[in-house]
Amino acid sequence: MSISLSLAGRRALVTGAATAGIGRAVALLLAQAGARVAVHHRDEAAAAAALAAETGGPALQADLSDEEAAARLPHRAAEALGGLDILVGNAGILLRKPLADTSAAEFARVHQVNLVANFVLAREAAALMQRGGRIVLTSSVNQWMPNPGLVAYGSAKAGIGGLTRQLALELATRGITVNAVAPGTIETEFNRAARESDPDWRARKLALIPAGRTGTPQDVAGAILFLCSDLAGYVTGTTLAVDGGLSLMGGAP
């Protein structure tokens, strides 16, 4: 069997792809590797359409807080692409609030989008996949490293780690691998507000990262491409940290 990073002939769905962050970088890199990529967005229609023109697949709108919309999304992608081989569950929302100020409704919404939606997407995508299918979910180093103010987000990402292992176990006999990536400090729109409001943000982050730099969306995209490729055919149920060594340090990222 030929083993390479080529994804020629593969059909992929990447959620949360329309913003200038990890999802967009992943969609572009998978397309460069030969896949046709459906790009999901919540309400960025123009950006998603422009990206889809580069990835060879459709732009698909869905609010992933709606369980039915999440369940339909892989089927819509498969219908447009003629099948589905890869799911990258990347969409997520961030809530920064102290425990005492976090309502049960806010906690539930973060878990709905970041954890429950990925369960639903993976369940439906797996039903469409043949042997060799790939599911990759985006977690975070907060899966292992608690951070004040991230009780909802961090616990949802910890759930992604457990979900990945459970899915991998159930789907291994069908030849479908399931893995996660755990980005560290990646400079994206996701954390732009924190960067702009805190002049010491970068210096504090760099003091915690052994590699001496913050990450880029392309750093994460490269790891996801590997996990989607034939080179990772014997890798399943793992969470790959893409963090420049941040998670080696302990403490809050």
Structure, described:
The chain is α/β, with parallel strands linked by helices. The protein has a single domain, classed as Rossmann fold, CATH 3.40.50. The protein is 42% helix and 14% strand. The chain is built from 8 helices and 7 strands; from the N terminus they run βαβαβαβαβαβαααβ. The chain has a 7-stranded parallel beta sheet with strand order 3-2-1-4-5-6-7, sandwiched between helices. α1 links the parallel β1 and β2. The longest helix is centred in the middle third of the chain and has 25 residues, at 104-128. It is globular, with a radius of gyration of 17 Å. It starts with 10 loop residues before the first strand and ends in an 11-residue tail after the last strand. The model has no long low-confidence stretch (mean pLDDT 94).
* CATH level-four homologous superfamily name: NAD(P)-binding Rossmann-like Domain
Sum up the overall morphology in one term. Answer: globular
Tell me the β content.
Answer: 5-15%
Helix content: 40-55%
For the termini, the CA-CA separation is 41 Å
Note the total helix count. Answer: 8
Rounded Rg: 17 Å
